[in-house]
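Whiteboard transcription, Tuesday session. T.W. wrote the C-alpha cells on the left side:
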C-alpha cells in the first residue's frame, strides 16, 4: 500500500543526503519544502518534493493508494525520545508536595522516597498489570507525536523485578508501532538493605543481573546513575565494563546533581549518550568534543525539580550536538510530551526553534541509536511522521506550548488512531 500526503504547506526536516547527527552552528538550520508532497511505500519513505514535481507514474498503477490532503498543514518526522522511564507502577504526587515544601531530590531519596518509592510500588505489581499501565503511556506519547522511544528499567532494584520490567519493555516492542530501545538500569539507586555496603549491590548487578539480562537479550543498552549520592565513578566503571562485555552499549545518567565525573566515564566507554548533564563545564565540553557521545538534556526534569539548566547554548556554540529527551518518569518528569520539551528548551535554555527540532528528531534518534532509519524525512527511512493542524509556521510548535497541534500520526507508514 502507498500513502500520498499532498498539498503540504511545509515539509519540515528533509534530507537529500542523510546525516547521523547535526552539531554546532548547523543545528540552527533545517531544510524544508513548501507546497510539497510525501510519498510512502508500505513502511518506507519513497519520495518527496514540490507538488509540481510529483511524478504521477509512481502512483498511477498502484492498486492501493491512500491520499491525504495536508493543505494548510505541516508534516514533520516523528519525535524520538532517547531517555524515558515510562514503565513504572503508580505515580508519586505526594513527593510533588514535598518538593513544593522545599525538600530537595536528595533529601526525598534519603527518606526512602524517590526511586526507592517506585521500587516498592513495582515490587507489588504483576507483570501483566505493569504492562497494561505502561501501554497507556505508550499510546499517550504516540498521540503527542513520538515515534521512537528508549525505555529504561531501574525501578526493580532486585534481579526478579529488573527482569520483570525488561520483559514488559520487550512486550511493548512487540505489540506497539513505536520503535523502542531498551536499557538495563539496575544501577539506578542503591536499595536500603545495601546502603552500608553499596559495593555488594554492584556485585549483584555484575554477577547476577547482567548475565541474566544478556541471556534473555532483554536490553540494547546499559545505564548507570553516576552522580552524587548514587554510584561512584569507580562503581560505574565496573558496571559498564561488565555491560560492554555482555553486548550492551552504555548510556549514562551524568552530572545531574554535581560534577560527578559521569561524562568522562561515559566517554571512556564510548557511551551513546550522556544525559541530564546540568553540571557541565569546559573540561567536560572538551572531553565531549573528542568523542562520538551525544550530550542529551532533559528540560522536563530540570523544570519539575527547579534545578540548574544544562549549558546547552554553550555546548552548541562550542561545536557540540545536543539532543533533547523527556525523561518521562513518575518522580522528576511526569510527562512524555516532546513538544512541551521543545518549549522548555527554547525558553529556559535559549535554543532556537530550529535547534530544538534538530535536538528532538535527528539528534535524539542518534542518542538512541536509530538515526540511520529515523529522525528526518529522507528516502529510504522509516515513515514515522505526523501532520499538524493548520498552523502558520514550524516555529509555532514550541511557541504554542500548551496547544495540541497534531492532526494525524503515521507510524511505519500507517495511520495511528489517537
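and on the right, the sequence the group agreed on:
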Amino acid at each position: 500500500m502507498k500513502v500520498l500526503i499532498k498539498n503540504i504547506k511545509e515539509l519540515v526536516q528533509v534530507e537529500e543526503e542523510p546525516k547521523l547527527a547535526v552539531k554546532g552552528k548547523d543545528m540552527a538550520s533545517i531544510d524544508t519544502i513548501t507546497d510539497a508532497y510525501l510519498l510512502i511505500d508500505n513502511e518506507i519513505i519513497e519520495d518527496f518534493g514540490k507538488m509540481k514535481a510529483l511524478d504521477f507514474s509512481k502512483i498511477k498503477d498502484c492498486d492501493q493508494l491512500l491520499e491525504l490532503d495536508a493543505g494548510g498543514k505541516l508534516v514533520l518526522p516523528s519525535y524520538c525520545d532517547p531517555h524515558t522511564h515510562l514503565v513504572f507502577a503508580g505515580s508519586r504526587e505526594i513527593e510533588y508536595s514535598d518538593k513544593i515544601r522545599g525538600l530537595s531530590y536528595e533529601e526525598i531519596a534519603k527518606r526512602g522516597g524517590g526511586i526507592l518509592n517506585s521500587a516498592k510500588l513495582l515490587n507489588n505489581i504483576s507483570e501483566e498489570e505493569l504492562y497494561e499501565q505502561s501501554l497507556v503511556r505508550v499510546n499517550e506519547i504516540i498521540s503527542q507525536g513520538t515515534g521512537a522511544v528508549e525505555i529504561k528499567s531501574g525501578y526493580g532494584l532486585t534481579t526478579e523485578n529488573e527482569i520483570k520490567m525488561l520483559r514488559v519493555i520487550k512486550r511493548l516492542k512487540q505489540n506497539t508501532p513505536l520503535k523502542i530501545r531498551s536499557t538495563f538500569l539496575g544501577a539506578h539507586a542503591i536499595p536500603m538493605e545495601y546502603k552500608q555496603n553499596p559495593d555488594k549491590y554492584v556485585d549483584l548487578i555484575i554477577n547476577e543481573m547482567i548475565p541474566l539480562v544478556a541471556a534473555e537479550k532483554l536490553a540494547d543498552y546499559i545505564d548507570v546513575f553516576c552522580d552524587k549520592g548514587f554510584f561512584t565513578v569507580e562503581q560505574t566503571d565496573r558496571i559498564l565494563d561488565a555491560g560492554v562485555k555482555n553486548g550492551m552499549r552504555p548510556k549514562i545518567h551524568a552530572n545531574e546533581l554535581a560534577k560527578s565525573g559521569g561524562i568522562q566515564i561515559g566517554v571512556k566507554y564510548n557511551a551513546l549518550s550522556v544525559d541530564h548533564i546540568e553540571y557541565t563545564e569546559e573540561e567536560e565540553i572538551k572531553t565531549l568534543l573528542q568523542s562520538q557521545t551525544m550530550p542529551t538534556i532533559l528540560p522536563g526534569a530540570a523544570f519539575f525539580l527547579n534545578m540548574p539548566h544544562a549549558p546547552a547554548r554553550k555546548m552548541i556554540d562550542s561545536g557540540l550536538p545536543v539532543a533533547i529527551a523527556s525523561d518521562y518518569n513518575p518522580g522528576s518528569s511526569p510527562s512524555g510530551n516532546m513538544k512541551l520539551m521543545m518549549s522548555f528548551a527554547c525558553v529556559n535554555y535559549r535554543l532556537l526553534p530550529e535547534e530544538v527540532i534538530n535536538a528532538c528528531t535527528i539528534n535524539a534518534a542518534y542518542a538512541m541509536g536509530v538515526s540511520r532509519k529515523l529522525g528526518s524525512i529522507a528516502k529510504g527511512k522509516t515513515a514515522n511522521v505526523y501532520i499538524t493542524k493548520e498552523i502558520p509556521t514550524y516555529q509555532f510548535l514550541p511557541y504554542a506550548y500548551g496547544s495540541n497541534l497534531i492532526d494525524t500520526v503515521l507510524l511505519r507508514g500507517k495511520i495511528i488512531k489517537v
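Someone added at the bottom: The first helix runs from residue 93 to 100.
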